[in-house]
Each structure stands twice: as C-alpha cells, then as structure tokens.
Design a protein that fits this description.
Oligomer: heterodimer
Largest interface: A-B, 57 and 63 residues
CATH class of chain A: Mainly Alpha
CATH topology of chain B: Alpha-Beta Plaits
Largest sheet of chain B: 3 strands, mixed
Number of helices of chain A: 11
CATH architecture of chain A: Up-down Bundle
Distance between the termini of chain B: 50 Å
Strand order of the largest sheet of chain A: 1-2
Number of strands of chain B: 11
Radius of gyration of chain B: 26 Å
Order of helices and strands of chain B: EHEEEEEEHEEHHEHEHH
Radius of gyration of chain A: 22 Å
Shape of chain B: elongated
Structural class of chain A: mainly alpha
C-alpha cells in the first residue's frame, strides 16, 4: 500500500492522546487507592488532559486531509453497524468528549465524592468519568486497528497482532509523554510513569516483533493463476490497461526500493523501542526533563516510521494485476 | 433474485479495447458527471476508467499464448467493498445486484477500494469520489432505447461478442448457460466474494489422429497403393465398417 501521511499522523497522534489519557487515569486511580501521592488537580490532571486533547484534535485534523470530500465527513457516522471506519468516526469524538469533561472537572476542581470506604479510599465522580473515558479509549484503539485487521485479504494486517500493536504502541507513547510531563508538574509520579512506559514499550516490542516475524512468513493466498484463472506457472504481464499509470498503480504501491523498506524497518525498531527505554532510564535517574522529552520525540518519530512501514509492507492482492509497476 | 453480470469470453477477446473506449464515452457523458483525465494527450496520460483491458503472455517461447483480459467490477454477490463504507455511499442494489457508489454521499476515504481484492474501484482525482462500473445502470433500464440496446456500452461495442450480459441467477439465461456449459469461472475464488461476473476460459480444438487411422488396418496386404476392392457392384468395405 502507499502510505498516506494523513493516516500516519492520525493513527500516531491519537495513539499518543489516548495513551496520555490512560496514563492520567491510571495515576488518579492509584492515588485514590493511596498507592501514589495525590496530585494537583488543575496543574497535573487539567493540563495533562488538555495535552491529550490537543493530540486527539491534531489527529482529527490530520484525518481530514485523507478525505476527498471532508465537507461530507459527518455522513461517516451512519454505517456503524457494518463499518469499523464508521465506528472509529464515532469513537474518536467520544474519547475527546470524555477527555474534555475529565480535564474540565479537574481544571475547575468540580468534583464530588461518590462514596468512600472506611480505609479512606474515596471514589470521586472524576474517577467515574475517567473510567468511562478509558473504556472509550480502548474502544477507539479497537476500532482503529480493526479498520486494518478486518480486511481479510490484506494478509499482513488481518491478524489479532494488529490490534495488540495499535493498543500497545499508542499506550507506550502516551506513557512516555506522561513521564516527561510529570517531570514538570508531578515529580512524584515520574518513576511510576517511567517504569510503566518502559514495561509497555517492551510489551509493544514483543508484539511488533511477533507481527514482523509473522509477516515475513506469510504465504499469499492469491496468485496470478487465481487472479486471471489461467493454470500455467509461467504468466507474464504485457499490458496493464493504462499508459501513464492509474489509481491502481498509485494507491497500492509504495514505489520504494526493498532496501529503503528494510532501513525503515530497522530505523523504527531502534527509535521506538531501545532508544526511548535508554532515554527514559537516563532521564529518570538524572531527573532531567529534557531527556524525557527527547525520549518521547524519538519514540514518536519512530512510530511514524513504524506506521509508514505498516502500510508499505501490506501487499494488496490487486497488485497481482499490476505486475510491471 | 436477480443478479445482473457480465460473462467475458477470453477465448474470443482480441484485446481491441473497444469496450474500454465505449465505456468511457458512455459514462463520461452520463448524468453522474465526467470521468476525469489528466494529460490525455501528453506523455503520461492517466485518468478514471471503469474497465481496462490487460494483456498477459502465458508460457515460454515458442509455446506462448497471448491472453487479453478485460477487467472491471465483478459485482460480487458478497461484495467486501459494501459493508466497509462508513457512509453507505457504496451499496448493492437489492433488485438487480448491481454494486454502485452514490457520488453525492461518498466522502472519498478510499476504504472501499482497499477492501476490493480486484482493484476494481478507481478514485476520481478531480471529483474526489470513488468510481466504479455501474453496468451502465442508466442505460439498461432506459425505455427510450430500443430493447436490443438496453445493454452495457461495453457489451454493445464488443466486435467479437466476447462480452455477454444477463442475469446469472436465472439458470436459463444466456450467461448462465455459458457459465455452465463453457466452463465459466470466477476470479480469486479463495476470498469467498462470489463474483457475479464470470470468465470463460480459452478453449482449443485439438485433432487427435491415431496411428491406425494413418495406416489402413484392414488392408491385408499392407499396401497403401492397392485398395482392397471387390467387384464394382458388390458392397465395399466402407459400407460395412466405419473408421
């Protein structure tokens, strides 16, 4: 497939926003159970939600560039019964809504205790909003990934690993951002977020590597024989039905050398996993916010390369009809 | 149930591209608007087509065979491009099984084209919507045309009658009979899309001559120049045996 930058930005940016929100909610849940010290509602949770929301909005803006007719985008919410894309179109504003409400509640300190236990654990309304928001976040991760995993003949994508990867990679980048953010606003939580960012990054490394191994061994179901229905093992295409290329030759081919593809693969394998882990550990041990911020930027750039590779690696069966591209 | 479809006979197609040009001519002047082209008269011409003819060479020289392969939307019975559409612009008609795009609802997200294993859909770079073969839906029901012309433009234009059009659900229709009796097959059956359009394979006539057909087995003297013959008025061997 030809990687579209609008979709690369969309999926990576909302991944960061979703992960950041999950990090904030995890922090508040732990604090409610007294596993972590409570943080400043306005400065930490309010601003943190704003940052998460900005990433989500940026992703939404990027997605508009993918559409030929963005003025009709509202129609995309109608076929949620059958289309994962439609479900994503509904889930994304839902997430943004919950992040917004969660952020406003914290920023304005509009909150109330729903109940508290005798051990002093208080369950606040914002925690309920956060839980609903987290549910929306997981739904959005599922919808985004299923857009790709649901196309069964794009065999590189049609795997549960696609869903695991989207979930873990997005969450990892969000937790890395939360680590850097907490260095500025809540130094108590740096270690908590940093360690989780490292753990999730390692988990993402395992699942992404698993999908790379799986994809390198794919046996493609469609062949030129099944595509044109001629049983002969020597078939050469002589004409593609177009002289100057067509939509079919532009949309489904990345047009890069195999070496370029391979270098992008190794680039993201370094930028997304080991380098951020090293930078996170270094930033945590030296309490250096800049290093943590660099860890996030490096991981984000790596994720863009990862997403580029994700699209470029997918081999659409229609390419069989365009052998001489 | 009706499922309109094309049957394309690869045994007859000569790759002249008459179907391509007549398709483009009919549909670019149709009510759905033009099918845009870029650089039509320059070096790298490109544009939107519903139908393209590709050419494949099968085998190794000197035993090669050229196959011209017209490719358009197959109007799958279980069309994977329809459920993925987020707006419902891509739909399959209940009454005749034609898969269509509502150009007024399409947002141009291209997801349907990703979901088509055949690459049958093309994005119009100027109208910014997805386009595909309509089986000339604006023509086949047009009662102002004589009945013989109520067929897709490609079918009417084919000089070798390589394209048949009809209802593949009706077992007695011309297309069903052709599929059943001439070995019609669907493309990429492995994906379970159940394409309605079928292709008829190359069919060759071979003359099989046995050795004993070259040498007259009933010539007792094994002399070709001497015909076994009796009296002129007696029945000959040809009257009593067949070979």
């Amino acid at each position: 497939m030809h990687p579209a930058f609008s979709v690369i930005f969309l999926t990576t940016l909302i991944g960061v926003g979703q992960g950041m929100f999950l990090a904030l909610f995890t922090g508040q849940s732990y604090a409610a159970a007294h596993f972590l010290p409570a943080q400043d509602s306005t400065g930490f949770f309010g601003i943190g939600s704003l940052i998460a929301l900005l990433f989500l909005v940026a992703g939404l803006v990027a997605s508009v560039f993918h559409l030929g007719r963005p003025e009709r985008a509202w129609r995309a919410a109608t076929k949620w019964r059958t289309s994962w894309l439609s479900r994503e179109v509904i889930a994304l504003p839902m997430v943004m809504f919950f992040v917004f409400v969660y952020g406003v509640m914290h920023f304005m300190e509009w909150d109330m205790v729903i109940f508290s236990t005798s051990t002093g654990v208080t369950f606040k309304l914002s925690l309920l909003v956060g839980a609903l928001g987290s549910l929306a976040v997981f739904t959005l991760f599922l919808c985004t990934a299923m857009i790709y995993a649901a196309i069964k003949f794009l065999q590189e994508w049609a795997s549960p690993l696609t869903i695991v990867n989207y979930l873990l990679l997005g969450t990892a980048s969000g937790f890395t951002l939360a680590t850097a953010f907490s260095m500025y606003t809540a130094p108590d939580l740096v270690e908590f977020y940093g360690v989780w960012a490292i753990i999730i990054t390692i988990m993402a490394f395992v699942s992404r590597s698993a999908s790379l191994i799986r994809n390198s061994r794919i046996k493609f179901k469609s062949t030129i024989q099944s595509a044109i229905g001629v049983r002969h093992n020597q078939i050469v295409q002589k004409a593609q039905g177009a002289m100057g290329g067509s939509y079919n030759t532009r949309e489904y081919f990345h047009g890069k050398q195999a070496l370029f593809l391979k270098s992008i693969k190794w680039l993201f394998m370094v930028l997304v996993f080991p380098l951020p882990i090293i930078l996170l550990s270094a930033g945590m041990s030296s309490s250096n916010a800049e290093v943590l911020l660099v860890a996030f930027v490096v991981q984000y750039v790596g994720l863009m390369a990862e997403r580029w590779f994700f699209f470029a690696q997918a081999n659409h069966p229609q390419n069989i009809y365009y052998q001489t591209v | 149930m009706t499922q309109l479809a094309l049957v394309i006979d690869l045994n007859v197609c000569v790759g002249c591209s008459a179907c391509v040009t007549s398709c483009k001519e009919w549909n670019t002047s149709g009510p759905a608007g033009f099918m845009s082209d870029d650089n039509p008269y320059q070096a790298e011409p490109t544009g939107t087509f519903f139908n393209r003819v590709q050419t494949y060479e099968v085998g190794c020289f000197p035993n090669t065979e050229t196959i011209h392969f017209p490719k358009s939307c197959l109007h799958c019975e279980d069309a994977p491009c329809v459920p993925v559409c987020p707006t419902g612009a891509s739909y399959k008609r209940e009454e005749d099984g034609i898969v269509l795009v509502d150009y007024d609802k399409c947002i141009g997200c291209k997801y349907c084209s990703w979901a088509c294993p055949y690459g049958a859909r093309e994005f119009d770079e100027h109208q910014k919507v997805m386009k595909k073969c309509t089986l000339c839906v604006d023509r086949i029901y047009d009662e102002s045309l004589p009945e013989s012309e109520r067929k897709p433009a490609c079918v009417l234009s084919c000089p070798t009658s390589a394209r048949l059009f009809g209802d593949v659900e009706d077992p007695e229709s011309e297309v069903s009979v052709a599929i059943r009796e001439e070995g019609g097959y669907p493309l990429m059956p492995e994906w379970g899309t159940k394409p309605s359009n079928h292709y008829l394979p190359r069919r060759k006539q071979h003359l099989h001559i046995h050795e004993d057909e070259l040498i007259r087995a009933d010539n007792p003297l094994k002399k070709e120049e001497r015909q076994p013959s009796g009296p002129v008025d007696a029945p000959t061997l040809d009257d009593s045996t067949s070979w």
